[in-house]
Design a protein that fits this description.
Structural class: alpha+beta
Largest sheet: 6 strands, antiparallel
Helix content: 40-55%
Strand order of the largest sheet: 1-2-6-5-4-3
Radius of gyration: 20 Å
Order of helices and strands: EHHHHEEEEE
Oligomer: single chain
Shape: elongated
Length: about 180
């Protein structure tokens, strides 16, 4: 089985603008907290979190299968929790931690763009058992199949050809039984 390197179009700069604009309401909310503890400041923090989530969403939809859903769910829950009006320092900490998580996720997605590896696959052949792999599906499907560390292997169709796509090539060893 031979892997070929393929140039892919990634999210790159498309994530940059929403991520940069998310800083404006985030900093504005933090500055409003200095003046007074108000619902407007909380709203600005929540808006900053959701704008940073929008940037990550752009990257996650253009490069599917690389971000876990739990990472994407942190932002709406944190923005919702801010409206329960915890103390000012807790609100600021929640907003900054969630924005940092979104920034790291966007940075990870931006770094992955550019290349991936593909190999042809017969869908009738079951996926091999690999030690240390986390399987989402045991049979080929056009979705994420399994993960080995940070290397995600996905099933794709390109020009009616069925393939596996991965962030880095994997060596499969088949045993004759």
């Amino acid at each position: 089985m031979e892997w070929t390197e393929v140039d892919t179009v990634g999210p790159g700069p498309k994530m940059l603008f929403p991520m940069a604009w998310s800083l404006l309401p985030l900093v504005g909310g933090l500055l409003l907290f200095i003046k007074s503890d108000s619902l407007l400041a909380t709203s600005f923090l929540a808006a900053g979190i959701m704008l940073s989530l929008f940037a990550v969403w752009i990257g996650a939809t253009s490069m599917p299968g690389r971000v876990d859903m739990l990472v994407l769910l942190i932002s709406p829950f944190a923005a919702f929790c801010l409206f329960f009006q915890p103390p000012i320092l807790v609100q600021a900490a929640i907003a900054l931690v969630v924005w940092t998580i979104n920034y790291r996720t966007a940075s990870f997605l931006s770094a992955l763009s550019g290349k991936s590896y593909r190999c042809k696959w017969d869908p009738r052949v079951p996926l091999p058992q690999i030690d240390g792999a986390t399987y989402m599906h045991r049979k080929w499907a056009a979705r994420p199949l399994f993960r080995i560390g940070k290397n995600m292997v996905r099933g794709i169709r390109v020009n009616n050809e069925i393939m596996l796509e991965a962030d880095a090539p994997i060596t499969f060893t088949f045993s004759e039984e």
